[in-house]
Amino acid sequence: MSFPTEKQLRDRFDRSEHAVYFATADKRTRYYGFGVREEKFGADFQDVAAWAREQRYPVFGGFSFDEQSVTDSALMNGYFVLPEVLYDITDQHLWGRETDPFGAPTPIAGPAIISQTDERDWPDRVQTAVDDMQQNPNHQKVVLGRQRQVRLTGELNLATLLADLATQQPNSYHFVLKRGDEVFVSATPERLAKVNRGQFETAGVAGTIRRGADEAEDARLATELLQDPKNLQEHAYVVETIVSRLQDVATLTLPDGPQIMKNPQVQHLYTPIAGQLNGDNTVLSLAERLHPTPALGGKPVDWAMATIRTIEQHPRGLFAGPIGVVKPDGDGEMIVGIRSMWLKQQTATLFAGAGILADSDVQAEFEETGLKMTPMMNLLKEQDK
Length: 385
Fold this sequence. Notes:
CATH topology: Anthranilate synthase
Number of domains: 1
Structural class: alpha+beta
Helix content: 25-40%
Number of strands: 21
CATH superfamily: Anthranilate synthase
Mean pLDDT: 95
Oligomer: single chain
């Protein structure tokens, strides 16, 4: 059998009951997996690491952001899968035995959006955290998210979604995990940890501003972001925490200050961090050390996590959790499940968060979270064209 085309793999994804797609931001690594050989539900980092070591090829999935449970979901409370067959697009390699030959796709029209429901009281709830930080200087930052429910006329055409991801979000990671009537989709810009033969890479990503209408405005906004005290402080919290959590297990290399990362809708402050690991550290041992960074939780972490549970109306599940690929030797790449949505039957739930400091403008933060939902909203809108 010749190696399938990208279109064949996308069509297969749409009609499969269980499937996974993973692509790195540079697209040098891309996998399509189909079927289930083994799966894990709600396992912790150590359990998944031990299980992955027993396999012949990579496993895929994610950990729930915290201990809160999402009702009516087998996916969102932590799930990993060893696909029955796995296609490595880069190396043109197939793991497993193919028993489901690629047939002609069945054209399915995508759904239309019926309605969307937002948490309109989110700014008022976030203001209580701002008031807390203004009164308690030790409470420095909390990342607060909101969710949007979008009702659809039918189920998504996932072949179309995968193609649109490639064109609309070319510089982001892509992670799409399907199990039965549930699908989790992320076009995150943020790597949590990559490990390859003793070398590791991570990044601090925090501080956000919109893209400009033209190159001149875009450059002006980037300069504004690089000079903005609130965003610089938010970013510094993230970088300082990453360094403190890794400095005893690795030799670290990082630039003196943040750079700009540009995505289609927003640009971020970005500090790449890399180095050599000491001992037998793996991608999951690093992910466990790092999660949640102040880019997803806050500082101090215990107060931030308690504040998230109090102020956010819904459990996060895989939203903002560590998701990705783990190889049997412990190498792999874990990313952060943001710019994401959870699909169940005819409802899409979108998630976005913002870093809240004592001087945050809650209405501006509400608008920023709306901007961060744009990648997933665009995927939904393209379904009806």
